[in-house]
Amino acid sequence: MRNTKFLDRTFHAAKLALAFGFAASLVACAANKPKPEPTPPPDPAEVARQQAEVRGRETLTKGIGEYEAGSYAQAEATLLSPDIWAASDAIKIAALKHLAFTYCVSERPSLCRQSFERALQLDPNFDLSAAEHNHPLWGPEFKNAKNAQ
After folding, report:
1. Where are the domains of the chain?
2. Residues 77, 79, 83, 86: what is their CA dihedral angle, to the nearest 10 degrees?
């Protein structure tokens, strides 16, 4: 019986030693693992482009809100802001569309048509919704701009 206890303790001690050895190996492997490369700083030009896009979108939203509120002179000034013209073509096209609407409702049809023409230069596939096509003020001006393309 004494030998059995001795063997049990020896076996238990060997298992513990094996477990500690395995754990130490894992720690050593983890310590030798190469550290991940730090993320490179963002490209300054890309950061500037993203910031310009955010400012352009915010300015566009403000200009559309002014247009919808009937503040056409203020909408025109906002939609002509440099922040919009530093943004993507999508922002510029949306601004040109609302500038055209602003010009049409303030009885400046040639500026309305020119805004549509500029939008079509940026995107030849630019189009109005069905309801916008049928609007009595800017529908005909858009059609004229599209035909001049």
Report:
1. 47-147
2. -130
- Per DSSP, 87 falls in state S
Q: What is the pLDDT of residues 15-49, one digit of tens each?
A: 555 555 555 555 555 555 667 788 888 888 888 88
pTM above 0.85, yes or no: no
State residue 30's pLDDT score: 55
Topology of domain 47-147, CATH = 1.25.40
CB 92 within 8 A of CB 122: yes
Average pLDDT over residues 42-63: 91
Dihedral, CA atoms, 145, 83, 61, 104, nearest 10 degrees?
-30
- Burial readout 105-144 (b: 16 or more C-beta within 10 A, e: otherwise): beebbebbbbbbbbbbeeeeebebeeeeeebebbeebbee
Q: How far apart, in whole angstroms, are the C-alpha atoms of residue 88 and residue 81? A: 14
Which residue, chain included where needed, has tokens 């309305």? 112
